[in-house]
C-alpha cells in the first residue's frame, strides 16, 4: 500500500428525476429540504451509499445495512466482537494509551469504512471506548435550485389483515403517501486529509477505490422510492494537490465548480445545465462522467 502523501478534494454533480433521494423521518419521509426550498441529501445517506458500493467491490465494511450484510453478524457490536484481539482490548479492565492505539490500528486495518470515515467504539459491556477520526469528510448534497416535491396517495389492492368490523371494507393500513422530487440537480463536496490518513492507514489505493465508488454511487441502490435510473451521477471532479497541506483550501477548490441553468427546455434534464470548473494555478482537475 502507498501512503497518502497529498491532499485530495472532490466534487460530485448528480440528478434526481422523480425520486425521493433522502426522506426525512421527522417529516413523513418527505424529501429533505432547507428553509429556502433547496433539496438536501445528508452526508450520512451519501456515506451509506459509498459503503454499499465498496462492500459490493469486496471491501470489508463495519457499518453494514441489515438487508445487505454479507456475514452472520446482526449488529456493529457483534461484528466487532468477532475480532478476538479487538474484543479483548475493548473489554480490558485497565487499558493503557498503548492499548487504545492498538485497538484503533486493528479496527482500521480490518474495515475500510473505519479507516476512511472513522467510528466511535463505545458499547455496553466494554471497559474502554475509542474514537477513530477518519480522513474522508463529505458535505451534505444541496440542489442548485429549489426543488418541487410532489405527493401522491397510494393504496394496496389487498388488505394486510382482515377488517374485523366489516370484512368487505379495506383496513386503514392499505392507505399511504409517497413523496418525490420532480427533478433536481444536486452537488456535494468532499476532502481527504493526509495527516489523518497517516493515523488510520488510509492509503492512496484506498482513495482510488473511493473515486470509483463515487462514479457508481447509485448502482444497486434501486428501491420503490428511487427506481433504477431515477438517480444518476453526472460528473465527478477530483483534485490531487502537490503536498499534504494542499496548494489551496478545500473551500476555494470547491467554489471552482459552477453549475448554471442555461435552458428551460421540457422535460427538465441535465442538458439544461452548464457544468464548468475554473482553473487554479498549479492544481489540475480530473473530470469523470458517471458510469
TrEMBL record:
InterPro entries: Cas7_Csh2/Csh2 (IPR006482), CRISPR-assoc_prot_Cas7/Csd2 (IPR013418). One of its GO terms (biological process) is maintenance of CRISPR repeat elements. It comes from the Bacteria. NCBIfam families: cas_Csd2, cas_CT1132. This is Type I-C CRISPR-associated protein Cas7/Csd2. It comes from Compostibacillus humi.
Amino acid at each position: 500500500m502507498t501512503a497518502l502523501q497529498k491532499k485530495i478534494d472532490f466534487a460530485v454533480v448528480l440528478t434526481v428525476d422523480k425520486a425521493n433521494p433522502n426522506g426525512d423521518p421527522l417529516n413523513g419521509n418527505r424529501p429533505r429540504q432547507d428553509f429556502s426550498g433547496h433539496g438536501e441529501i445528508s452526508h450520512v445517506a451519501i456515506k451509506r451509499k459509498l459503503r454499499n458500493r465498496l462492500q459490493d467491490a469486496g471491501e470489508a465494511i463495519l457499518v453494514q445495512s441489515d438487508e445487505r450484510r454479507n456475514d452472520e453478524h446482526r449488529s456493529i457490536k457483534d461484528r466487532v466482537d468477532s475480532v478476538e484481539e479487538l474484543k479483548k482490548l475493548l473489554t480490558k479492565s485497565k487499558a493503557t494509551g498503548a492499548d487504545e492505539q492498538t485497538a484503533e490500528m486493528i479496527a482500521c486495518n480490518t474495515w475500510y469504512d473505519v479507516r476512511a470515515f472513522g467510528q466511535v467504539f463505545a458499547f455496553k459491556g466494554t471497559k474502554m471506548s475509542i474514537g477513530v477520526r477518519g480522513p474522508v469528510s463529505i458535505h451534505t448534497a444541496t440542489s442548485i435550485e429549489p426543488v418541487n416535491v410532489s405527493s401522491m396517495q397510494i393504496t394496496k389492492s389487498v388488505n394486510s389483515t382482515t377488517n374485523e368490523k366489516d370484512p368487505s371494507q379495506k383496513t386503514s393500513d392499505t392507505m399511504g403517501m409517497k413523496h418525490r422530487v420532480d427533478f433536481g440537480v444536486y452537488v456535494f463536496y468532499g476532502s481527504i486529509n493526509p495527516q489523518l490518513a497517516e493515523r488510520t492507514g488510509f492509503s492512496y489505493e484506498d482513495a482510488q477505490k473511493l473515486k470509483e465508488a463515487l462514479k457508481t454511487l447509485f448502482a444497486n441502490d434501486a428501491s420503490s422510492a428511487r427506481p433504477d435510473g431515477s438517480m444518476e451521477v453526472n460528473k465527478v471532479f477530483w483534485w490531487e494537490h502537490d503536498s499534504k497541506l494542499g496548494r489551496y483550501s478545500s473551500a476555494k477548490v470547491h467554489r471552482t465548480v459552477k453549475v448554471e441553468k442555461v435552458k428551460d427546455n421540457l422535460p427538465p434534464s441535465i442538458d439544461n445545465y452548464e457544468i464548468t470548473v475554473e482553473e487554479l494555478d498549479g492544481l489540475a482537475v480530473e473530470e469523470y462522467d458517471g458510469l
